[in-house]
Amino acid sequence: MTAIQVDGLTKSYGDFAAVKGISFDVAPGEIFALLGRNGAGKTTTMEVLAGFQAPDEGTVRVLGLDPARDRSRVRARIGIMLQEAGFFPDLTVAQTVDAWRDFVAAPRPRDETLELTGLAAKATTKVRQLSGGEKRRLDLALAVLSRPDALFLDEPTAGMDPEARRNTWEVIQRLAGQGTTILLTTHYLEEAQRLASSMAIMDQGLIVAGGGMAETLAAETGRVAFELPSSVPPEELPVPVTTMEGRLAVYRLADPDLTARTLLNWASERGLRLRGLEVRTATLEDLFLDLASGEKHEKKATV
Ligand SMILES: Nc1ncnc2c1ncn2[C@@H]1O[C@H](COP(=O)(O)OP(=O)(O)OP(=O)(O)O)[C@@H](O)[C@H]1O
């Protein structure tokens, strides 16, 4: 059973094709990240899934339902946190949550909701006095009020400081642990890598990379980098360097650990130090940069 199913989704605004026939599935309880540059088509995809827009072509199913046709049944079972929230600035946080509870069939208790989203200390603060990150948390609080089976989070941690971001990650992970399926967009690649078990990277309406997070990154090249001692010309290195960035020798390869060992042995035999040595497997950021530079840029619509 899939919780979210997207098959050949196409959506245009007038002549402009924002989403061009994409497909992906999200399993129940999974956290799926939809990634890509500004204007890639992420929000449009999310809006179709949430039933705000109908697809031009293709089919989407959320919890087995068609969000365009079964709008109210889908709405009752999903939570949505889009980019621009409309709050009443003169209500307090607690009053805002209470007002929203009136619209929800079996709402979470107010205090539990504030506790869950780290807003308990702000209950009596007026919305107009909240910071940008706190407003995002209030958005999240409203999105989880109905104990949704699927949650759509559009840039949930935008504007948050590192601690608030980490707290929000914990909330998201806790919700997924309770079985909530989560589709999120984010520009913070570390966040996507940390949270999501699957992802799709969109570019100009197409999916350009995607699948299981661990599998996708395992197939990417890792990185070894260090400051080349000034006495050593790059040609003398025991493993040919991929690029020199000033005095920084950079390797991009499948086995960074083995290469680092060879380099360290070589340096120690010569009494050299490899200053600033960095050894790591691929990150989502590496994948993004590779895609941006045109490598592996074989566009496809399906994960
Ligand atoms: N209502 C609209 N009318 C016309 N064009 C639109 C409309 N909404 C979005 N677009 C265009 O469709 C494209 C995809 O937009 P979308 O908001 O889905 O991108 P996104 O990946 O979510 O971007 P961001 O990261 O900036 O939020 C953009 O080029 C945008 O300008």
TrEMBL record:
- What Gene Ontology terms describe what this protein does at the molecular function level? ATP binding; ATP hydrolysis activity
One Pfam family assigned to this protein is ABC_tran
One GO CC term on file: plasma membrane
> Where does it localize?
Cell membrane
What membrane topology term does the record carry? Peripheral membrane protein
The entry's keywords:
Antibiotic resistance, ATP-binding, Nucleotide-binding, Transport
Q: Which CDD domains match?
A: ABC_DR_subfamily_A
An example of a Gene Ontology BP annotation on this entry?
A: response to antibiotic
- UniProt feature coiled coil, ranges: none
- UniProt entry tagged with the keyword Nucleotide-binding: yes
- The UniProt record lists the keyword Nucleotide-binding: yes
Q: Domain ABC transporter spans what residues? A: 4-229
- The protein here is known as ABC-2 type transport system ATP-binding protein
Q: Which organism is it from?
A: Streptosporangium subroseum
